[in-house]
Amino acid sequence: MQHIKHIIFCLIIFSNTCFGKEFDELFVVYDPIDNPSKIEKSINNAFNTMIYRLSGTSSPSNIWKIINAGNSRKDFIKSYSIKNIDSKSYLEVNFDKNLLISKFNNLSIPVIGKSRPVILFLINIDSGLSDPYFLTFSESKSSLDPSIQNYLKQYASSRGIFLELPQLDLLDKNEFDNYGKLINMHQYISDKHNYDELIKINISKTGIETWSVNGDIELEISNKKLNNFFMDQFIELTNVKVNELLQMSLINTEEVNLVNVSIQNIVTFEDYKKSKEVIEGMVTIKDLNINKFDKNIISYQLSIFGDINSFTKELTSNNFFQVKGISVENLSIDLSYIK
What we know:
36% helix; 339 residues
C-alpha cells in the first residue's frame, strides 16, 4: 500500500503540466545607468525590480509594506558595481536572498521560487512584400520587430520569467522553404520547444494601408497606427498571462516543513561544495543540516518554505539534480548529483 502511495505521489508531481526553468540570477538585478551620480536612483529601481520578481506581482504595495516596516532598500543589498554590457552601462546589484525571504516571511508576503514559467510567442508576420516569417530574437525585418523584441527582454528580466521567441536554425528554414505548404508550421515550431503557455499571433497586411491581427490578439488597424496600437494590446496580453502563471507558483512562507533529502554521486569535495551551494541557493530552503555522509551519498534534513511539491518543482528546474524517488508520507526525496 505504501508503495502504491509513493507511485501515485510521483505521478502527481511529474504529470504536472507546468514546465518551468531555473531563473539562476533571480537575486541579481541589472539596471541601466548613464551617469555614476545616479547610483541611488538605480539602486531604488533595482530594489523595486527585485521585489516584483520575488513576489510575482508588479504592484508597488509590497515595496511600501517593506519600506514602511522600517527597512532601507540598501539593507537588502550584498554588493553593487557598474558593469559594461554590450557597450551599455548597468548597475549590477546583488541582493541578500536569506534576508529578503525572512522579511517576506515576517510581513506574510508569499514568494516565488527559482523555477519560473516559460511563455513561447509564435508571431508570424506577413507584409505582402516578402515571404512571411516567424519573429525571433536574432533578426529584425520590420519596424515593429525591435519593439516586440526589446519589450520581451526587458519585461522578462523585470518579472523574473522566460518570455521566449522561437529559435530557428538553417534546417528549420529549409523545411519551411521546401514543405511550407504541407506542414503546420505553428505545430512544427511549438513541438520543438518546452513551454508553459503558448501565444500565437498572426500579423498580415490586407490592404495598401490596413493590417489584420488574429490569434490571441484580434484587431484591424491602419498602417500608421499599427506599431503603437499593437504594442498596447501586446503588452496588456503579456501582462495578464504573466500574472496568471506567476500566481500559480506562489509559495506560502508561513508554512514550514522538514524534508529528508539524500544525494547520490557525491564523490569529491567539490561535488559536496557545489551541490550544497545549489541547495542553499533555492528560495524554498529555510535551513539545512547534514545528517550523514557515507559512500558517496550525503543526507540532509532541510527546513523548507511551502510544501514538498513547491520544493520539488524548484529542484527539477535546475540541471544539477535528477530526482530518483519521492515519498510524501515520509517527506523524503532521493536525488542524484549531475556533474
